[in-house]
Specification:
Length: 70
């Protein structure tokens, strides 16, 4: 049997990476992931700052009640 040369082909090149023209949602996935990570980091920093402010306020209140100065 003879193979038909029109049916057989070879792979000339393989493209890797993101192609923004192929899918508008697929091209936004890295941005969504980095936004989610950034939001988590910001939430941790904000909660730590509020905690430190609360500690400072409590120390100041306790020193006023006992008559001591910092």
């Amino acid at each position: 049997m003879q193979q038909d040369s029109a049916r057989t082909g070879k792979i000339l090149r393989v493209k890797t990476g993101y192609n923004p023209n192929s899918s508008s949602v697929g091209s936004q996935i890295p941005a969504f992931l980095s936004f989610a990570v950034g939001t988590g980091v910001f939430a941790i920093i904000a909660s730590q700052m509020l905690n430190m402010i609360g500690i400072h306020i409590r120390k100041k209140k306790d020193s006023i009640e006992t008559g001591k100065q910092e």
